[in-house]
Amino acid sequence: MKKLFALLLVAVLAAVAFGCTAQPAAPTTPTQAPAATAAPATTDGPEQTQQPEETEEVVVCWMGPISGPYASYGTMSITGCKLFEYFWEEKGGFEVHTNRKLVVRYEDNEGNAEIAMALFERIVDEIDAFAFANTTLPTIACQPLLTKYEKPLMFLGATADRALEENNPWTFRATAGDKDIQVAHEKIVEYLAQVQGHNFETFAVVHSSDDSGVGAGLVWSGVFQKHGAEQILDETIQTAQTTDVSGIVSRLKSAQPDVVVACLPTLEASLFQKALREYQCEIPVVAAGSGYSAPEFFDAIGEGGADGVVSTQTWVTESLDYAGDPEKAHELYEKCKDITGEYFTEHGALAWCGLAALVEALDRAESMDGSDIVAALQETDLPPDHWVNMFTQYGGIKFEDVRDRYNQNTYASCIYAQIQNGEWRLVMMGGKPVDPNPVIWPVKAYAD
Fold it and tell me: Is pTM beyond 0.90 here?
């Protein structure tokens, strides 16, 4: 019996094997495919399909003067931000949290503190982080709101240090402040004294009435006094109100200081330079940057109207050669007009650096909770050739408590440039002269 059962089992197995290997005959009529049956869901195994993460919009609010007396500064700042947005999309956006998408909103506070506060309160629930351009007072006014709503804010260019002197953990600045610029001022004063063969004995300061002008004037006064010079004039031009500076120039011409320091916005700077030329006041001018770097300044003063002026700067065209990626920096600079509708300027460089530093931290932040963004900003430590520094020659980006200010980029500094033949030329970097553009000094403050 067992033998018979074994023979039957062998026969069955052979039939099964034949059925598995034999090819079925081709059907003579079309057949409809059976309906697909959904595979049961699994929780592990290599065949599990990951659903794409939902896109998370990261909203940064640029706030600054688009209208009003400071509108030109806002325009230059927006240009830098728009150029960065183009670069950011071109490079592929967020790298750590790839589901995030950057959205930059542009809001006009007219450079006015009260307008800025009202605007902030109205839109704060829609914003992850703020970037304030140029004017200091709106930033200071909004600082209590940053604490109230736990929203981080990045400076995009204002140099006044007051907003960082109190320990507000929500405020950051990637670019240079007055105390950083003071270090560079001391080096240029030493160098100019060597070039002319003696120290400066007297100086005058002409500054605007706004916070930036007053602050820059105080910094320059400290530098010259440290080198033994006596201040013999301190003149104020009322911002966006003064149309005649002849009285100031007349007093300068009578006092004859060795040098005059001009800390002025664009309109006031052009008025001052034209008056120096009209009255043939030949006192050399050292400028505090911003007003003298705007394209409108050169349009207003005409050819040769400011040759010889030496100024602190963040960026001039020649500094592109010293960028971490000079080829890319030149490419972006050349494309700027086509991309943004405006030419690239120093304020564009400041805005790029600030916005780029903020966005780089937003990429690393665990979430868009304000405390997580602040933590990412405080952990920032970028090398000098990082794309955040595309248009600035800083030694890196790292936010620390430095020179009695909180959350200031410890590497922020400035370069020196001189107007030669109607354009800015790079003359000093890192406290040393830059070839092939030696500083021409002393110089007349007007064109023959």
Answer: no
